[in-house]
Write a structure and sequence with these properties.
heterodimer, A: alpha+beta, Folate-binding fold, 4-stranded antiparallel sheet, about 35% strand, B: FAD/NAD(P)-binding domain, D-Amino Acid Oxidase, Chain A, domain 2, 2 domains, 8-stranded mixed sheet, 6-stranded mixed sheet, about 25% strand
């Protein structure tokens, strides 16, 4: 797999670490309750197909990225800086 | 039909014309007492033990492909009982005992080979950890021997014992561990279940789970609706998709684990050898191929194939451990889909839906568990109570934080196991 880092261009996936589905952008409020936190920490949609996930370009520009990827074909779609994705959320 | 030496001799002398199919190919009935979704190793053993131990024979196994087409045919066939946590320890010990009597029980040659497993260690600290694990295995009633440098050299003369970074200090030797023929395990359980009246329905994909007022009523399939008061999902690799049909989200992420087989070679490795520091393990099949694998690729995947960085790493580790492997060619490689749970242990439990049971989250250790998983799942489905050796493997342990089964002491979080 090669990942198109918005800052560095297309790079070998070995430069990146994986942090799973892009849930960190949906972190519940501190007082959201046990069920919401359990769901956030443990449960996953785990789709077979398109998903949004967090990758860290640790051997490159050290950016957190939100990448669209197909879990069946390993094909990447849009890769954006996490700060831009987060900033776009209300 | 029963297999025996006499039968093989007779068939050999009469042109092998008397062999019959190992199981029927029935059409689904409109209703059963219980349905098992998934005709892999665990689903088939669940059906077998439901029939054998609990007398439930009006049951069906629904398989979307053909019997043995999933992870039961895509693994590295290792059988062992070297766990240390309360719960896991009893469960895998029970499983190994079932393995030891399995071929006689099933009247089927599963090529069970207790060739022993040797976990290598390379430092004083690792030796202490191995000694601790060995003591835990012995106190569970299983076997363990701590090998010194000389003993490992005598048992495994072909390894590179003097690698500068990872010199071999010794090994933890689990003699009753070994390998079994993975396909034959599926076929043996399938045949055993079929002989007891279980309907094995292939090419029958479940497309929906019927639930009314919190009680399961049956399933929708590509071959029509089938009613049942008890439905067990035993579909590791696709657990999240099937659970979603019941409106559930599971604490599972699917990851890819690769394995490799070399061309057939003369015998050079008599045991299963694990090289933990290189995230690599290896055994030699009866055909002579070296069967070896490594760690996860560490990203979610349903592709059933991995990427080159992990393959390259595994090859490097193999070269480091057994330099002569560099002369061999890799014949084939594959990837299995692993149900990874946050704590690295499996789930066998009831759900909030009455009559709906879940067997999932086998991470990268499902094969060795095949007999006990079915044994305990059958017990749960038949009696409504968890079996003694699987009572810790609850679905709600992540939510409550009580009874987490974190065998590697890494924490209960995705991507740590």
């Amino acid at each position: 797999m090669r990942i198109a880092c918005p800052l560095c261009g297309e790079r070998d996936s070995r430069e990146f670490s994986y942090k799973g589905h892009a849930l960190a952008l949906e972190r519940p409020a501190e007082d959201a309750g046990v069920a919401a936190w359990d769901d956030y920490l443990h449960n996953r949609d785990n789709p077979a197909g398109l998903t949004q996930e967090l990758w860290f370009h640790d051997m490159g520009c050290a950016s957190w990225l939100v990448a669209e990827r197909n879990t069946v074909t390993h094909e990447f779609g849009a890769v954006r800086l996490a700060e831009d994705v987060k900033g776009a959320k209300p | 039909m029963r297999f025996s030496a006499l039968k093989i001799l007779k068939e050999g002398l009469t042109g092998n014309k008397g062999w019959t199919p190992h199981w029927r190919d029935p059409a689904p009935k409109p209703a059963y007492d219980a349905i098992i979704i998934g005709g892999g190793g665990h689903g088939l053993s669940t059906a077998y033990y439901l029939a054998k131990n609990h007398g439930m024979t009006n049951i069906a196994v629904l398989e979307k492909g053909y019997i043995g087409s999933g992870n039961i045919g895509r693994n590295t066939t290792i059988v062992r009982a070297n766990y240390s946590l309360e719960g896991n320890s009893q469960f895998y010990s029970h499983s190994l005992k079932l393995w030891e009597g399995l071929e006689q029980d099933l009247n089927y040659n599963a090529m069970m080979s207790q060739r022993g497993i040797i976990n290598l260690f390379h430092s004083d600290g690792q030796r202490d950890a191995a000694a601790k694990r060995a003591n835990m295995m012995i106190s569970q009633g299983d076997d363990a021997i701590l090998l010194d440098k000389t003993s490992v050299r005598a048992l495994l003369p072909n390894l590179n014992h003097d690698n500068i970074r990872f010199p071999i200090y010794g090994g933890l030797y689990h003699k009753r561990g070994g390998t079994a023929r993975h396909d034959a395990v599926a076929w043996g359980f399938a045949r055993g279940a079929d002989q007891r009246g279980v309907d094995l329905i292939q090419n029958c994909e479940v497309t929906g789970i019927d639930i009314e007022n919190g009680v399961v009523q049956g399933v929708q399939t590509t071959r029509g609706a089938i009613r049942a008061k008890k439905v067990g999902m035993v579909v590791a690799g696709r657990s999240s998709q099937v659970a979603a049909m019941a409106g559930m989200r599971l604490p599972i992420e699917s990851h890819i684990l690769q394995a490799f087989v070399s061309e057939g070679l003369k015998p050079c490795i008599d045991h299963v050898v694990t090289f933990g520091m290189g995230h690599m393990y290896m055994s030699q099949s009866d055909k002579g191929g070296l069967v070896f694998g490594g760690d996860l690729d560490f990203y979610a995947s349903y592709a059933q194939r991995g990427n080159l960085p992990t393959a390259e790493h595994v090859m490097e580790a193999a070269m480091c451990l057994l330099p002569q492997i560099g002369k061999a060619k890799v014949l084939r490689s594959w990837g299995g889909i692993m149900d990874m749970t946050p704590d690295g242990s499996f789930i066998i439990d009831k759900t909030h839906i009455e009559g709906f049971f879940v067997n999932a989250g086998w991470c990268y250790g499902g094969f060795k568990a095949v007999p006990a998983s079915g044994y305990c799942m059958a017990h749960l489905m038949a009696t409504g109570q968890p079996h003694e050796v699987a009572k810790h493997h609850r679905l709600d342990r992540f939510e409550t934080g009580r009874g987490l089964m974190d065998e590697e002491h890494r924490g209960s979080q995705h991507n740590l196991h």
